[in-house]
Design goal:
By secondary structure, this protein is mainly α. The two termini are 29 Å apart.
């Protein structure tokens, strides 16, 4: 599904008022494309398309609706009189009725049949599903871009050894590229979930005030098949395979919860990635992009704060908390309908989309410009490698006839002394010297140095990167190659 080309057109009519609150998601973070999807223009023009789809289906099924009335409505899909709608809403205290009157004022011939047989959720809920699907499609494309960037990074550094960490303590070596595959696998699972949600979304259709289709059964004089065909025709015109099989007045609010679970999953993955980069930035091993005139701190000119990754984490925390809103809403709906969902979902659903859109904009920017400091990585490896090489050294001596248990104890003692030198005295790691001087090992310094080649300790990391890219990532990138032709969104701050 392509995003519309005129996403900013409706926003230009509103003057910027700096004396009232504006959401940072709009002014600082989210893309124009995502803001258009959740804009008034998109919402209310979709209402009008739904009214047209309803009228067309009713005409085709024999109700007294004319092509002239439909043509009149189609001529006024996007030229919405917001002033009249606001005036009518103030008078009627009902947003859907206000827009029916605003539409009818432009379409006097069609006014008698606009919204025929429908309830407010016909336009409200169906529009919400349409908008969420378009938002998910945009999110999907940005996930693909992030995976593309990381795939290039992983391939470039698939064999570059680096310290692995467990508990943020130095562990066995991995490679820089292999670590990137962990970030990618999280995103790949998110992409699969988003695609599942896109495929699973169904329109509410036209179910009536309590989901019984009673008004349509009356219009069609008891013809049940025409009621069912009405649902099918509207779903097809709006680009869906089907509408929900049963409902109250609304679609199940579990739909919103499921969609936000998918968005929350992206937030979790992005926060993990950004946190790792922040920690690597502290180690001076890997850094996020830093522009030539960028200021890291207003007080400390030498600072290179990882502000982009910090922003990912901040926005991700918001999304992960926001997902509680639709879960509570779904749990507290009464019977066929209650209205305590409306005000909440007007805020919680769009802002989750805008925040994840912003997160992925930053993710794409960071993943496309990661800076790797190979000499720092090598220095950190060589500081820890004597400890990691100790097991291989022990195996060599055992093959020469040594006692594994006795050697293990001697290495343990020497490692404690070397750790004391490093941590308490600020000296270099002298474990190899201690082992070389111990006659139990019978190894020269040169023989021990042979064990200090980092590539001997990375296992199958390069092969794992190659296999993962070939078997899992490249097929996804090929399937979504159109997403890679779109220009990346420029970060606003």
């Amino acid at each position: 599904m392509k995003k519309p080309l005129n996403f900013s057109a409706g926003r230009l009519r509103f003057k910027v008022n700096k004396s009232i609150y504006e959401s940072p998601l709009s002014s600082r973070y989210a893309s124009d494309e995502m803001q258009y999807i959740f804009s008034p223009d998109k919402k209310f023009s979709t209402w009008r398309r739904l009214w047209i789809a309803l009228a067309r289906a009713e005409m085709e099924l024999g109700l007294p609706v004319t092509q002239e009335q439909i043509d009149e409505m189609e001529a006024h899909i996007t030229d919405i009189d917001y002033d009249l709608a606001a005036q009518k809403e103030k008078e009627l205290r009902h947003d859907v009725m206000a827009h029916i009157h605003a539409f009818g004022a432009q379409c006097p011939k069609a006014m008698p049949i606009i919204h025929l047989g429908a309830t407010s959720c016909y336009v409200g809920d169906n529009t919400d599903v349409i908008i969420m699907r378009e938002g998910l499609c945009l999110i999907r494309d940005k996930l693909v871009k992030a995976l593309h960037n990381l795939s290039q990074f992983a391939q470039r550094y698939q064999a570059l050894p680096t310290l692995g960490f467990t508990h943020f303590q130095a562990a066995q070596l991995v490679t820089v590229g292999k670590r990137a595959t962990l970030w990618m696998y999280d995103l790949l699972m998110d992409l699969e979930e988003v695609e599942h949600r896109i495929a699973k979304l169904k329109l509410l259709g036209c179910k009536g005030t309590t989901g019984t289709q009673a008004s349509f059964l009356e219009l069609f004089e008891g013809d049940h098949e025409k009621c069912k065909e009405l649902d099918r025709k509207i779903a097809k015109e709006m680009g869906f395979d089907a509408s929900v099989p049963v409902s109250g007045q609304t679609y199940s609010r579990k739909v919103d919860a499921d969609v936000l679970y998918a968005l929350s999953g992206i937030a979790q993955s992005a926060s993990k990635f950004a946190t790792d980069v922040r920690l690597l930035c502290h180690l001076k091993e890997v850094e996020e992009p830093f522009e030539s005139k960028q200021i890291g701190s207003s007080a400390m000119p030498y600072k290179r704060n990882p502000m982009r990754c910090e922003r990912i984490c901040a926005l991700a925390r918001y999304v992960m908390a926001d997902v509680a809103n639709p879960t509570f809403t779904a749990a507290t709906q009464w019977f066929e309908r209650t209205l305590d969902d409306s005000a909440n979902k007007r805020i919680s659903v769009p802002e989750a989309f805008l925040a994840v859109d912003a997160i992925l904009n930053i993710y794409i920017n960071v993943s496309g410009g990661l800076v790797v400091h190979e000499k720092v990585i090598e220095k950190h490896i060589m500081e820890e490698l004597p400890f990691m090489a100790s097991e291989n050294i022990m195996m060599d001596v055992v093959k020469r006839g040594g006692n594994r248990q006795e050697l293990h104890e001697r290495i343990r003692v020497h490692a404690l002394e070397a750790g004391h030198n490093v941590k308490d005295l600020g000296l270099s790691n002298n474990l190899l010297d201690l082992i070389a001087d111990d006659p139990m090992f019978g190894m020269t310094r040169e023989e021990l140095t042979d064990h200090m080649e980092p590539s001997r300790y990375i296992g199958r990391c390069p092969e794992q990167v190659t296999d993962f890219l070939n078997e899992f990532i490249r097929p996804v990138l090929a399937a979504h190659k159109d997403a890679l032709t779109e220009k990346d969104t420029e970060l606003k701050v």
